[in-house]
Amino acid sequence: MGALWKYSYDDYPDGTHCLYKTACVTKQTSLLALAMGTFDVINISKPSNIGGALIRYPRYMVPGFFSGLVFGLTTCTLTQMRQKDDHFNYIVGAGSAGIVIGACRRSLAVGIPLMLLFGLGGAIYKEVRVRGTEFFPHLKHEYGTFDTYKRDYTLTAERPKYTGME
Questions:
Q1: Keyword Coiled coil, does the record have it (predicted)?
Q2: Signed CA dihedral, 55, 57, 63, 66: sign only
Q3: Of 24, 23, 12, 91, nearest to 82 (Cα)?
Q4: Helix axes 18-39, 50-82, angle to 10 degrees
Q5: CA 98, CA 117: separation in Å to the nearest integer?
Q6: Are 89 and 62 within 8 A, CB to CB?
Q7: pLDDT value, residue 68
Q8: Mean pLDDT value of segment 100-119
Q9: Residue of 27, 31, 138, 144 with fewest CB within 10 Å of its CB?
Q10: Which pLDDT tens digit goes with each residue over 52-104?
């Protein structure tokens, strides 16, 4: 299981190692689709046997797998063809992933809004990568003591100097 998490989409620059990057995106979307399918089986559809549960999973797994596949291939191929690494590649790649989900649902009412929403998300993701920031930065968590009400442990306050005599 540890090897499953070791590779990342950001390991190589855009436009190179297309199959590797596509596998990274497809891994994430497939795992998200598996979680959504499990949530559906446990909380929504509640099938009475294992066959009913197994029939529900492709409804989530197929669009999840193919949306990641289409996003990875579209983004990398556009970067190679255009010789530009910009936001447009991510907008088109994410929009095509939204259309794939709409096609799997056989609904334009699902596909068009997802295309716009995913396209906006792709542009935001590229902007975050261009600026060198992170979506979820790693914060160092500090634990308090029994008298935490006396101290301010916010991110902006100065930390008290510990003398060891407290």
A1: no
A2: negative
A3: 91
A4: 150
A5: 8
A6: no
A7: 95
A8: 94
A9: 138
A10: 989 999 999 999 999 999 999 999 999 999 999 899 999 999 999 999 999 99
With a pLDDT cut of 90, the percent of the chain lying above it is 60
Q: CA-based Rg of the chain, rounded to a whole angstrom?
A: 22
Mean pLDDT of 24-46: 94
Write the CB contacts of 80 (distance below 8 Å, at least 6 apart in sequence).
Answer: 15, 18
Neighbours of 66 (CB within 10 A): 19
Residue tagged 């101290």 (tokens): 151
Which are the contacts of 150, defined by CB distance < 8 A and separation ≥ 6? none
- Per-residue tokens: 53: 């549960």
Burial class (CB in 10 A: 0-12, 13-18, 19+), 47: middle
Please compute, for residue 147, the number of CA atoms within 13 A of its CA located in the half-sphere on the CB side: 3
Cα separation, 63 vs 132, whole angstroms: 31
DSSP secondary structure string, 20-76? HHHHHHHHHHHHHHHHHHHHIIIIII--SSHHHHHHHHHHHHHHHHHHHHHHHHHHH
Widest pairwise Cα distance in the chain: 69
Supply the DSSP symbol for 140.
P
